[in-house]
Amino acid sequence: MEDADRDVESVPRVALTPAAGEVLRRLRAEHGPLMFHQSGGCCDGSAPMCYPEGEFRTGGSDVLLAELEVDGVGEPVGFWMSRSQYEVWAHTRLIVDVVPGRGSGFSLEAPEGVRFLIRSRVVDA
Predict the structure, then answer these.
(1) Angle at 33 between CA 28 and CA 34, to 5 degrees
(2) Which ranges of the chain does DSSP label H, i.e. alpha helix?
(3) Which of 46, 52, 70, 110 has its CA 20 to 30 A from that of 32?
(4) Which DSSP string do the residues of 47-62 spell out, in sequence order?
């Protein structure tokens, strides 16, 4: 295996900022196990949406990119992405962050006056 291949494999596909982890702990306490889905649509459709686990139905057109470990949360938080979006972002590290504001989707954090967003970094391929 070449060094570049090893580097891509050693970098987690999806990571959380500390602020996103804090919001996930609060949401987990209120809603139970959680999941993310990112469709890649326009506007808020390109933001990661957080749902109670299993509430968003995934299928063959989705890819499970990560099972995020969050301190203080008893189970991993799955991060799903539509396969078409994954093909575009295949060599990108996604960093889930949270910022003030309100998205227009059904994501669980909306009533808290914050919204999740993705920051990204290209991983050498």
Answers:
(1) 80
(2) 3-10, 18-31, 83-89
(3) 46
(4) SPEEEETTSSPP-TTE
**Total-model pTM:** 0.85
User: Residue 112 — φ and ψ, nearest 5°?
Assistant: -85, -5
pLDDT computed for residue 7 by the predictor: 40
Residue 20 has pLDDT above 90, yes or no: yes
DSSP 8-state secondary structure symbol assigned to residue 17: -
Beta-carbon contacts of 60 under 8 Å, excluding residues fewer than 6 positions away, are: 83
Arithmetic mean of pLDDT, 53-81: 95
Whether the per-residue pLDDT at 24 is higher than 50: the answer is yes
Give the residues across from 36 on adjacent strands: 50, 79
Instruction: Give the Cβ contact number of residue 72 at 10 Å.
Output: 11
Closest CA to 48 of 111, 113, 106: 106
Nearest to 90 by CA among 98, 99, 81: 81
